[in-house]
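Bug #77: duplicate submission created two jobs. Keeping one. Sequence:
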Amino acid sequence: MAKVKPFKGVRPPRHLVEEVASRPYDVLNSEEARKEAEGNDKSLYHIIKPEIDFEPGFDEHHPDVYTKAVDNFKMFQEKGWLVQDEKENYYIYAQTMDGRTQYGFVVGAWVPDYMEGRIKKHELTRRDKEEDRMKHVRCNNANIEPVFFAFPDNEKLEEIITTVTAAEPEYDFVAPDGFGHTLWVVDNPDTIQTITEEFEKIPALYIADGHHRSAAAALVGNEKAQNNPNHKGDEEYNYFMAVAFPASHLRIIDYNRVVRDLNGLTPQEFIKKLEENFVVEEKGTEIYTPSALHNFSLYLDGKWYSLTAKPGTYNDSDPIGVLDVTVSSDLILRDILGITDLRSDKRIDFVGGIRGLGELKRRVDSGEMAMALALHPVTMDQLINIADTGNIMPPKTTWFEPKLRSGLVIHKLD
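Kept job's structure:
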């Protein structure tokens, strides 16, 4: 059962939250972070991307960069830009995008739940990326940024969301990207106890986004347990910070593909090959959006096409075989275009659906790419089914938006 606990969050005073809060470390590069933090000493980028305090081009994995993160985290606390709560609280965090709001619980998730598979994953992680974040957690002795979890809907927890969010929030602002972020402190002892008890009834938590951060946070907690001769199991390092959302609140958006060439085929030959496994319909010059699972949108040579996979080309009884990512990877990218490794092949690139299908058209019309393929998004049910069956999603399958804002709450490991 999922074990969670409240914790003494380290967070900005209300009047500073917009200056401190930032996008997550992994959605922008060093130069973009440097630009966003320009003229703002209080930006969390000074802690999560501390290379911005060095000359441009300085190695972001240099030991001095991690030391700088520690110095900056300390300085933020000394200056009162980050202040630790007196008592252990839960927090409810709401994100609003396109008029739609999702509510999550900010909790301390139990490290053994990750190590023993009760916190379930659906993606492979890369050791180098894990190692970078492990160093960051180790040196700061804190989870500076949360991970993003989903859990099966729970009626009692839904009632708590309704009750708590009817009160005045602690933070409420719209970030520069137009997404709204609102946070409530849950400090009522009875409510805290109910949250803990209700999570105990939930069989598993699911990593929605942030597999590297989850791995790093859990592995450091586990490391601390192994290295402590007096380890009891109730120490703060046995928990790492997560925001857990009811599954029905979340929406996965499409993750699309653009390809540089047609593997020596003319557009006509390419369409002909597609017709073996798909019903192909020309849709003209207006953007065409996939209408359902197993329906794809192709942009090629100034025109949009609908591709519908023929029965028998996908396996409905296989959690991976049923995915449109699998269907398109096997029948189009591999069999026709000769692209076998999505992680390393330079002929393919990926475009998050947040950019819209107009971005696909733009990249093909510019001549940079030869064709674009838009996919119907994966559902939360599919994601949970894949995690439950111990399967791994193919690369670049899910895109969650909005991303969690970093810096609203930090969790110290001591």
